[in-house]
Design a protein that fits this description.
The N and C termini lie far apart (116 Å). The strands form four sheets. Strands 8-7-6-19-18-17-16-15 form an eight-stranded antiparallel sheet, with no helix packed on it. The chain is built from five helices and 20 strands. It is elongated. This is Root cap.
Length: 449
Amino acid sequence: MAGRKWSILVAFFIFLIVLEAAIVHGQGNTKGNYSANGKDQGNGKDQGNGKDIGNQGGKDQGNQGNGKDQGNQGNGKDQGNQDNGKDQDYQGNGKGIGNGKDNGNGKDQGNGKNNGNGKGQGNGKDKGKEKEKKPYHGYDESSDYEELTPQSGYERGLCRANSSCHFKTLRCPNECPERKPKKNKKQKACFLDCSSKCESTCKVRKANCDGYGSLCYDPRFVGGDGVIFYFHGAKGGNFAIVSDDEFQINAHFIGTRPQGRTRDYTWVQALAVMFDTHTLDIAAKRVSQWDDNVDSLLVKWNGKAINIPSDGDAEWRVNVDDREVVVERTDDANSVRVTVSGLLEMDIRVRPIGEKENKAHNYQLPADDSFAHLETQFRFKNLSDSVEGVLGQTYRPGYVSPVKRGVAMPMMGGEDKYHTMSLYSTSCNLCKFKRPSAVASSKGLIAQY
């Protein structure tokens, strides 16, 4: 009798073992039977509750633990090596989740660094996709739109920017139906802004010498703070106008010193925009007798002169290092708009010192030189809070202008702080911009204007 009881107990114990084995076998899948250790994969907290991991894979991923879909996670070879289950609920980057290589080796899956950023794993539909990448560093959302067919003569654009204006169609106003009007001199142009402003406006495509960020005359600045000041510099000198982390703009001054005067009269004759390993030059040619119909503008890209077409779109463009550089004519001659995506926009015009102006200011200019120079207005995209330069410093938060107000010519000093050895030098006492190690060839950049 006692032997029979022992037989029954042994049989019951064997039955319990078989039953437990069947349960364990059911918690895994037929391919990846190492997937559920009872702590992490099937405990209903991390893997199977549909909150942490279940949301990551939509329909299939949320069934992890039912023995049907778990094998899709790591092909049954590497899934069971997922360490101790402490890092399992950080599964979230959507990069290596189903390749069977990175998903269970205990290095990529459980380090809590690469596997837990939750970028593309938790939308329930896009299990293996990463979150949409951030725009490249030269991106400008205001101009991110697709050109549509004009409607009744008015140009339109479908906004693609990731802003409140996304997928909205903007139409040019009645006052300026075109983005690039043929008669730039007299007509305003349409500007479509797909940023959070989400608007279409009319703008003059010429430098406004009384607007913020302007540099005109001999030379007179209007700072980012709206304060007007003069900076004389020196004849033949070069000065950092803006110097920031990502770019620098230098100016070359021409000038003259009449008899009896202790300082030079100066004008900006050339600008060099330096960013990454590239240099864009915009300069006024030396002209003896000025003619409005003759183009006196010189543009160089990395030391080589480029031609700006006067027909069609009347523009030159290049894409480099995730940035687009565009130089477009805004008049038949002597006027352009320069854009370096993500950094700046400049409206530039070449103009001479006229006879009346010469007499009024007693410049005493020689008869064989019209002293052609640049009038420029700058618009900057992403200046840092510590930006430097004659003009750049006026854009710093909390900047207080040191110039004396209420006088005829409020002077800004700083020649010693912003003087550079050449038009292409990025070194000055307060300059911030540093050229990368692989700088573009300096051939053609040596000659001064």
